[in-house]
Write a structure and sequence with these properties.
globular, about 35% helix, alpha/beta
Length: about 300
C-alpha cells in the first residue's frame, strides 16, 4: 500500500455528566461554550442509558456509587450544545446504537446534523452491559447484528427517499426521513469497540472511523498495526485511506495533564489523528473543569504540527 497522506492532529474534549451534580447538568453547556471558544476541535459525550446491579460483577470496575452518576442522553445533550456553540464539532462517544430503533436513530442523527449545520459525528458501539439491553427489550446476544443493521438502515434513510431496507433485524419499505443530509453532505460514523474482522467490515462498509478504547488494553504498537490493516482495507474497497479517522483517548498518567500529553507523539505516529482528553480525569472538582479546558487546549497547540 502506498503511504497514506498524514493529517494534522485534532483535539476532542470529553464532557461527562458525572462532572456535575444531577441538578447542575446545565453546566455542561458552559463547558461546551468554553471548549468552542478555546479552540478545541470536538466536544464529545459518553453514554449508558440505564445501569443495572449486575454491572457490579461485570469486571468493568463499576461500584455501587457509580450507578447513580449522571449520564445525560448524548444526542439530546449534543443538540443543546449545538445551540450553545458556533464552530466546534459534536461527537457522540458513544451512542449505544442497538438500544434505539433504527428509524429513530436515523431521524435523531439527521436532525442533529441539520441543527448543528453539519458539525455532528456519530460515534456508535454495541457496548457491554447486558442489564441495559434486557431493560430496553433488545436481545443482548444479537447486539452486533442489530448494530450493523441499524447503521445500514441509517445510511439508507439518509441517502434518499422513499427508502427501503431489509436485514435480519430491520425491515421497511417506502420510508421518508426528513430532514436528512442534502446531496453532497455526509454524516460521519465512527465505530467503537474491539478490533475484529467484523469491526473492519463495519468501518469499511458503513463507517468513517474507529475509536479504540482504553478498556481494550491494546498497546500503541497493536493500535498501529490495526490502523495499518484498516487503511489497507480502505484501499482494497476503493476508498481513500486518508479519509479514515482514528479517535483515541489519553491514558491518565498520575493525574497530570502535562505528563499524560507526552503520549501524543507516539499516538500520532501510530496513526491516531483525534486525541480525546477526558476532562473529569484532570479536574479536581466541578469548579476546576473550565481551567482544565484552558490548560488542555493551550498545551495541545504544540502538538498541532504533528501529523498522523
Amino acid at each position: 500500500m502506498t503511504d497514506t497522506p498524514r493529517r494534522p492532529l485534532r483535539l476532542s474534549l470529553t464532557v461527562e455528566g458525572a462532572m456535575y451534580a444531577p441538578d447542575e447538568q446545565y453546566r455542561l453547556m458552559d463547558v461546551a461554550r468554553a471548549a468552542d471558544q478555546a479552540g478545541a476541535d470536538f466536544v464529545d459525550v459518553t453514554e449508558h442509558v440505564l445501569m443495572g446491579l449486575n454491572t457490579l460483577d461485570a469486571g468493568q470496575g463499576w461500584e455501587l456509587h457509580h450507578l447513580e452518576q449522571p449520564q445525560p442522553e448524548p444526542l439530546s445533550t449534543l443538540a443543546a450544545m449545538a445551540g450553545a456553540t458556533q464552530r466546534i464539532n459534536l461527537l457522540s462517544a458513544i451512542v449505544i446504537a442497538p438500544l434505539r430503533p433504527a428509524g429513530l436513530l436515523a431521524k435523531t442523527g439527521a436532525t442533529l446534523h441539520a441543527l448543528s449545520r453539519g458539525r455532528f459525528v456519530m460515534g456508535v458501539t454495541a457496548s457491554w452491559q447486558k442489564d441495559e439491553y434486557d431493560a430496553l427489550g433488545v436481545p443482548y446476544e444479537q447486539r452486533g447484528q442489530v448494530l450493523d443493521d441499524n447503521i445500514g438502515a441509517c445510511r439508507t434513510l439518509w441517502a434518499g427517499a422513499p427508502a427501503s431496507f431489509h436485514s435480519p433485524t430491520v425491515n421497511f419499505d417506502g420510508m421518508f426521513c426528513s430532514p436528512r443530509p442534502a446531496p453532497g453532505e455526509w454524516i460521519k460514523v465512527w465505530f467503537g469497540g474491539k478490533f475484529t474482522a467484523r469491526q473492519i467490515r463495519r468501518v469499511v462498509n458503513l463507517g468513517d472511523g474507529w475509536m479504540p478504547y482504553g478498556g481494550l488494553r491494546m498497546t500503541v504498537e497493536q493500535k498501529a498495526a490495526a490502523i495499518a490493516t484498516l487503511r489497507q482495507a480502505f484501499v482494497e474497497a476503493g476508498r481513500d485511506p486518508a479519509t479514515l479517522d482514528i479517535c483515541d483517548g489519553l491514558r491518565d498518567v498520575d493525574g497530570s495533564l502535562a505528563r499524560s500529553m507526552e503520549q501524543i507523539p507516539a499516538l500520532a505516529e501510530a496513526g491516531i489523528n483525534v486525541i480525546r482528553i477526558h476532562l473529569r480525569r484532570f479536574s479536581s472538582g466541578p469548579d476546576e473543569v473550565l481551567s482544565a479546558i484552558e490548560e488542555a487546549t493551550r498545551r495541545f497547540e504544540e502538538f498541532r504540527a504533528l501529523r498522523a
